[in-house]
Design the sequence.
């Protein structure tokens, strides 16, 4: 069995009459458009999970800046606690 190569398909396509070349291009375009939409459609399960999470946390209004500020406070608190337990590690 001979493997079909990209080059052999192109060579055969070039030998087709113009109307069949146009038909081939239209068929390929339809296939590619269909494949492009398949990946963009969320599955019903993913959509349900997304809707559930969005509904669950709908009341939470936080920005990235607020989140980063809270994380910065947590890091500072942890550093303070660490230095309290390990005073020898404090910088002079």
Sequence:
């Amino acid at each position: 069995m001979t493997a079909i190569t990209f080059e052999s398909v192109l060579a055969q396509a070039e030998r087709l009459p113009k109307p069949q070349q146009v038909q081939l291009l239209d068929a390929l375009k339809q296939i590619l458009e269909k494949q492009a939409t398949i990946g963009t459609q969320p599955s019903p399960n993913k959509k349900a999970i997304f809707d559930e999470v969005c509904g669950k946390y709908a009341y939470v209004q936080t920005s990235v800046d607020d989140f980063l500020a809270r994380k910065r406070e947590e890091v500072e608190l942890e550093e303070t606690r660490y230095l309290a337990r390990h005073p020898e590690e404090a910088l002079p």
Notes: The chain has a mean pLDDT of 83. The helical segments are 6-15, 18-40, 44-56, 64-85.
